């Protein structure tokens, strides 16, 4: 239904005014037959669009929209049928709708196994969710498909890097500069907000001004390492989109000389992928989506790698469903924060909002001063900048 509604709104760029156009849209949404009540007959491209929707959402496709009527073609689990259908939907619908329909096809019709065939991968519209599906199939993927799968994943990763890298580097470079504050700044390096607050005691009412006896300024971060960041990523199946985004951000952070970046993924085992950070595609294919979760074990590994607590930010990305030792997990977080580590807990790093998560653990972390919240990729640079500067996090 959601793809049908979206396609009815966007397909063909047709003028939306008038009763005829409204009937056309309702006909595409309802699927035809006596029950839809529109009395509208579709021809030409509209009929082809309806057939593509019917193959996925009609009764013959395993859907529950109708018990009779026109939408009953289905895809039948046949690779040629699916390949033809993928081509059709890319012809008739915009990319945003195509991605929704592909996702629904994988979920509703069990088409994941067909993605193990190279010709199928060449036909799909790449997006973050498709990457997550491919990563979950990684171990079952035949050698003939792996290169095609890597090409699909690389295309998505390059799109994300293009979207996110420049702003991330600019935001964090500014944060690193501001974190190195000096008391004898040059004029253009003066932090006027902090300078005024530091000199409020020198306010002269008769002149309505503050005498700045002490100047506070921004330092300039050198090329040496100023901060250390550890990304600790839950690779359970529900975190697929977060794994994709975190891998891209990990590669961006690793490209900055002033930040030493470590990337750790975990389920019940812990894998350190830091040596692969120069290529986020290698990172993604080093993950294994699914399985249980042992956050305590992962944090133990991260804790063992911290050498400069006051200059370290640990980012835990997890839905907090802990299969390990809960009390030990919380003790580790408390110990790291007590040593001066900035600890950030993200329930998700994606555009989809907060997933289902363990509210008890989230509340316990918040009580330790590590509030847990979902974060969009566009907000992540601001969250990291605040953590590097030891400012309050911009919790949505």
Description:
It is built from 15 helices and 8 strands. Helix 3 packs across helix 4 and helix 7 crosses helix 10. Strand 6, helix 13 and strand 7 form a beta-alpha-beta unit. It is α/β, with parallel strands linked by helices. The protein is globular and about 80 Å long. The strands form 2 sheets. A 6-stranded mixed beta sheet has the order 5-4-3-6-7-8. The protein has a two-stranded antiparallel sheet with strand order 1-2.
- Strands in their spatial order, largest beta sheet: 5-4-3-6-7-8
Total beta-strand segments:
8
Q: How would you classify the helix and strand content by structural class?
A: alpha/beta
What are the segments in which pLDDT stays under 50 over at least 5 consecutive residues? 11-16, 62-73
User: What share of residues are in beta strands?
Assistant: 5-15%
Mean pLDDT over all positions: 81
